[in-house]
């Protein structure tokens, strides 16, 4: 048994549980104007980024999150040309989005430039595509960005944010969803990380309700494993102006780029709705 100091632990007292990762060293710690960022070297998960005490990204399992935040929505949209990523400062979602040749422009809008600078230093593989001529990196508040953006100017908005507290709180309310709806073109889709189906059902059901109140005709949640997040089971929720059951399956089967998790079968399976979830949404 090694000393407790060899472990990074994130506790979820309200859910009587915790996650611990064995660490080799703390590599960095700083307080930015927005949040506290820590970087660890772990024994088995590689580098780990933590924001305000919450795990964000590990070398070992970030592919699950980044692939599932991007490829399902991009293969659901009939022709995604312009994509905004709100948050996503580690650049992993940007890298996955830019694997799609049909994407002509991808703008990442993160409030905190330090997240990206530290990702460049400690997670260089995630930042592989930052110099792609189709990529633009902005360091401003995503809430303000959508407020200021012209109507019908984007095909897909991906909200790859921290939890709905602190600077990300305003990314989970009806006013924000209304602005996203206004900025999206016909067939436009908003895809947002929506926390754990095991721990955060009130949040997920409220997202469905207010996304519809904000004008979206359809909402749909997809599920995937994510070891380093609370409960190990995570979700993303889509809100669409068009039909969210569409799937460019032939394109997904023939995808010209490698993935580690996503494929056409995973796409279909990820949208399968567990019984408790179906029942919770029925009550909306
Ligand atoms: N994969 C992570 C998760 O679900 O835990 C999210 C990772 S990403 C690092 C989250 C990013 O959201 C952070 O870099 C943070 O700066 C950004 N963020 C939080 N609130 C924001 C806002 N209002 N506008 C833009 N970015 C925001």
UniProtKB/TrEMBL annotation:
<dbReference type="InterPro" id="IPR030374">
    <property type="entry name" value="PABS"/>
</dbReference>
<keyword id="KW-0620">Polyamine biosynthesis</keyword>
<feature type="domain" description="PABS">
    <location>
        <begin position="5"/>
        <end position="241"/>
    </location>
</feature>
<feature type="binding site">
    <location>
        <begin position="160"/>
        <end position="163"/>
    </location>
    <ligand>
        <name>spermidine</name>
    </ligand>
</feature>
<comment type="pathway">
    <text>Amine and polyamine biosynthesis; spermidine biosynthesis; spermidine from putrescine: step 1/1.</text>
</comment>
<keyword id="KW-0745">Spermidine biosynthesis</keyword>
<dbReference type="InterPro" id="IPR029063">
    <property type="entry name" value="SAM-dependent_MTases_sf"/>
</dbReference>
<dbReference type="InterPro" id="IPR001045">
    <property type="entry name" value="Spermi_synthase"/>
</dbReference>
<dbReference type="GO" id="GO:0004766">
    <property type="term" value="F:spermidine synthase activity"/>
</dbReference>
<dbReference type="Pfam" id="PF01564">
    <property type="entry name" value="Spermine_synth"/>
</dbReference>
<protein>
    <recommendedName>
        <fullName>Polyamine aminopropyltransferase</fullName>
        <ecNumber>2.5.1.16</ecNumber>
    </recommendedName>
</protein>
<feature type="binding site">
    <location>
        <position position="90"/>
    </location>
    <ligand>
        <name>spermidine</name>
    </ligand>
</feature>
<feature type="binding site">
    <location>
        <position position="110"/>
    </location>
    <ligand>
        <name>S-methyl-5'-thioadenosine</name>
    </ligand>
</feature>
<comment type="similarity">
    <text>Belongs to the spermidine/spermine synthase family.</text>
</comment>
<dbReference type="GO" id="GO:0008295">
    <property type="term" value="P:spermidine biosynthetic process"/>
</dbReference>
<dbReference type="GO" id="GO:0005829">
    <property type="term" value="C:cytosol"/>
</dbReference>
<keyword id="KW-0808">Transferase</keyword>
<dbReference type="InterPro" id="IPR035246">
    <property type="entry name" value="Spermidine_synt_N"/>
</dbReference>
<feature type="binding site">
    <location>
        <position position="167"/>
    </location>
    <ligand>
        <name>S-methyl-5'-thioadenosine</name>
    </ligand>
</feature>
<feature type="binding site">
    <location>
        <position position="66"/>
    </location>
    <ligand>
        <name>spermidine</name>
    </ligand>
</feature>
<comment type="subunit">
    <text>Homodimer or homotetramer.</text>
</comment>
<feature type="binding site">
    <location>
        <begin position="141"/>
        <end position="142"/>
    </location>
    <ligand>
        <name>S-methyl-5'-thioadenosine</name>
    </ligand>
</feature>
<feature type="binding site">
    <location>
        <position position="35"/>
    </location>
    <ligand>
        <name>S-methyl-5'-thioadenosine</name>
    </ligand>
</feature>
<dbReference type="Pfam" id="PF17284">
    <property type="entry name" value="Spermine_synt_N"/>
</dbReference>
<dbReference type="InterPro" id="IPR037163">
    <property type="entry name" value="Spermidine_synt_N_sf"/>
</dbReference>
<feature type="active site" description="Proton acceptor">
    <location>
        <position position="160"/>
    </location>
</feature>
<comment type="function">
    <text>Catalyzes the irreversible transfer of a propylamine group from the amino donor S-adenosylmethioninamine (decarboxy-AdoMet) to putrescine (1,4-diaminobutane) to yield spermidine.</text>
</comment>
